[in-house]
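ok so I'm stuck.
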Amino acid sequence: MDRALNPAVHAPAPAASGAGGRCVTDRRVKRIPALALALALALPGTAGANGAAETPPEHEFYFTRGIYGGDLDTLSWGPRWAIDYPKADQQFLVALRRLTVVDAFGSDHALPVGEAALRDFPFLYVLEVGSLLLSDAEAEALREYLLAGGFMLVDDFWGTWAWENFETQMQRVFPGRPIVEVPLEHPVFHAFYDVTEIIQVPNVHQAAGGPTWEYDGRVPHVRGIFDDEGRLMVAINWNTDLGDAWEWADLPSYPLRYSTYALKIGINFVIYAMTY
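replied:
not stuck anymore, here's the structure
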């Protein structure tokens, strides 16, 4: 059971104007015990039923998934950007809406990473970036988006070869800007829940037992890219799969350790993105 937050310490600071400005401003938060994370997904949710592209109503937060070009999944599940989509996004939003005061749009929301409309949505989730291939226009648009106040959460890519491709693509977005380890003392790990260790979240097939890693990705990392003022612009979850834990958190046999961690750190990323 988590200790209660001191709201005077943990209330979010006013958000600076950034990409689109749909942010929580001067909003106090409270922390929910870990068991409630599982209960939030055990009850019927309010998330949308499909990923149909519609104009969403006005809300403070949209969980925007980035659409990019690249390889198709080897099992013909579709493009890599759409792995776990839309269920993972919808399940995460059920927890976010129930466990926080964030006024979040309750369904999935996907946009191309180079689209101008992305500037209206300061949070971007991108996964399977071992297959990420950015055009020059997309790299420039992503750089402008992030420097304007956007936040990109990267997830679900494993091993050396995937890292090398992602690093190459990010060097095109930010030439010369380093990717560094994010220390556990950083505010992103304490924005809502206190996350004190980095847990490797396996895919659903490996969650029941056996190795939790894929390829040579034995050690999980949270790395980041910072702007000149020290704001974390890109949070990189390497050798772990938060999205699978979100997607399968309602499965009775799915280990609570993984789903609880994934929801906690995911909520932290959202609160950080909206308040820094």
